[in-house]
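Ligand: adenosine-5'-triphosphate. Inputs:
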Amino acid sequence: DNARPILEVRNLQVAYGGIQAVKGIDLHLCEGELVSLIGANGAGKTTTLNTLAGVVPHGGGEILHRGEEIGRLPSHLRLRRGLALVPEGRGIFTRLTVEENLLTGAYTRRDPEGVAADIEKVFALLPRVKERLHQTAGTLSGGEQQMVAIGRALLSRPQVLLLDEPSMGLAPLVVEKIFEVIHAITRDGMAVLLVEQNANLALEVSERAYVMDGGRITLTGTGRQLLSDPKVRSAYLGEE
Ligand code: ATP
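Predicted complex:
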């Protein structure tokens, strides 16, 4: 039953000291769904992803994974339960090789055969990563580093991939390639929650999306509905 949410967020609140960055949001994600979170700088998108991954603690509300509350678990236990984050800026270890970077994604796993099989899957999905395997990650192009970051997250064998601005700083053709990879990932049943500054692109590829503004979700709908919504067009798609 893939209509049942794999991840559900209820009334999530997050504050940094006195600054309320997320002010009680609700969202959900089903198996195999590609859902995006769009909105202006400072809307609270990155904070939301980091809170789901357990990198930032929440100040109220619930995070349910397959109906079970996980909102107080440390990040490594959420990773083991299938929530993997590809952070803003990619979080690559620049002095390690590509291979070493990939293996950090599997550090919570106890099944070396499974990890070896998943490495082969990552190579099939991201051939460039295989070509660069023994190179120091800091010498790769931005697009290649993004692929390593995605490959590393896939090595935790996630059910939910939390992707923060994968297109940032990349040329259009490279962005296109990254989005093809994201699409291929969801075909395997994985759910992806995508934070994107490039609202147009995000809405084109997403089944559903949430618009965030000032720590709140102000609009939600299918990618197509939001693409044709006049409020979205003027505020986020750069139209007059
Ligand atoms: P961006 O696209 O720029 O990352 P965003 O929508 O992801 O924007 P957040 O980065 O989540 O927004 O920021 C939400 C709010 O929280 C902003 O007002 C920001 O200044 C504040 N904020 C974010 N990180 C911190 C932090 N570590 N300490 C204090 N305030 C923070």
